[in-house]
Specification:
Blueprint lengths: L2 E5 L4 H12 L3 E6 L15 E5 L5 H11 L3 E4 L12 H22 L3 E7 L21 H20 L5 E4 L1 E3 L8 H10 L12 E2 L1 E3 H13 L9 E4 L5 E2 H12 L25 H7 L7 H14 L11
Parallel strand pairs: 1-2, 1-4, 2-3, 4-5, 5-6, 6-10, 7-9
Antiparallel strand pairs: 8-11
Helix pairs in contact: 1-6, 2-3, 3-4, 5-7
């Protein structure tokens, strides 16, 4: 078993990863900010050790990494993925400076693997599934800062030879997702026989279940260096689903009689009718395959939310 350090471990994907690491018997440390959220990890608090540090503080990060002395580090801390997180200065501090600080600390500590969570938003608007070598065209401040973080990881890996892969995550969903996001909102409203306000029905996403993303994180950490120490991998199913199809699935699954009222919510500036992963590289090099379809993942999320009503209620932020 390994000593592992997770940034963003109190967030959606991070808390699911932490649960898996604990279940597998790893010794787990969480690097957390002073006023971190706790609702996702309350039940596993005794099984993890919290190290308080702001990722934008290089000395605090270095001390935390040295204290944890991890073999694997998973970098999931980020700012700007939610509409309410629009402070560009904070995005730069967390996503860019924070990543640089963590890279330096991990290199100093001799960490075996630093897995960086990137974002499909780095590609910007694309008419087809982009490969990992596609030119990046970020279409938001958040996307631009995540692209910068990926470049920092790649540069550091090439300079040092350290294994610092980046996983470009597509539309992750599942237990412990922020309750105000699409899937949790559909489930919560659907239980009351309602549908929420909706954007254009042809807006599309590549929805990937969170357990599959955790699989990808672990596969990347354990992978041998294949000649590109800063390898980038798309993590998505390769199947595009429109909002119309998602709503139809939710209506069938939850028995919702209400008809969808399309375009009652304004499209976000990053919404597009083409958003799907080319995930051939991670399938070939890391032997990763998504285990859950959207329908199966949705059913599992419905079951989880039934047992965790408080966790599935709206909260102010992640």
């Amino acid at each position: 078993m390994n000593r592992c350090l997770v940034t963003g471990g109190t967030g959606f994907v991070g808390s699911n990863l932490v649960r898996r690491l604990v279940a597998q018997g790893h010794e787990v440390f969480l690097l957390v900010r002073a006023r971190h959220a706790t609702w996702r990890i309350q039940d596993i608090g005794p099984d993890v050790r919290l190290l308080e540090a702001d990722v934008s503080d290089p000395e605090a990060v270095r001390r935390a990494v040295a204290e944890a002395s991890p073999r694997w580090v998973f970098h999931l801390a980020a700012f700007g993925a939610y509409a309410s997180q629009d402070d560009l200065a904070r995005m730069l501090q967390v996503n860019v400076r924070g990543t640089a600080n963590l890279i330096d600390a991990c290199r100093a500590a001799g960490v075996e693997a630093l897995v960086n969570a990137g974002s499909s938003s780095e590609y910007g608007f694309q008419n087809e599934a982009p490969g990992e070598d596609q030119r990046l065209e970020p279409n938001s401040h958040y996307a631009a800062t995540k692209a910068a973080a990926t470049h920092l990881c790649r540069q550091a890996a090439r300079e040092s030879g350290a294994w610092i892969p980046t996983l470009r995550l597509y539309s992750v969903f599942g237990p412990y997702e922020e309750p105000t996001r699409l899937i949790p909102t559909l489930i919560r409203e659907g239980r009351e026989g309602r549908l929420p306000p909706l954007v254009h029905p042809e807006i599309a996403r590549d929805f990937v279940y969170v357990d599959d993303v955790v699989d990808a994180c672990l596969a990347a950490a354990a992978a041998p260096n294949r000649g590109d120490p800063g390898a980038v991998y798309n993590v998505g199913t390769g199947t595009q689903t429109t909002l119309r199809e998602v709503v139809d699935m939710a209506r069938r699954s939850l028995g919702i009689a209400a008809a969808p009222q399309w375009k009652t919510m304004a499209n976000r500036r990053w919404d597009t009718s083409s958003w799907v992963a080319d995930s051939r590289k991670i399938r070939q090099e890391l032997a990763w395959e998504p285990r859950f379809s959207l329908a199966e993942g949705f059913r599992r999320t419905v079951d989880w939310s039934s047992e965790n009503l408080r966790a599935s209620a709206p909260t102010p932020g992640p």
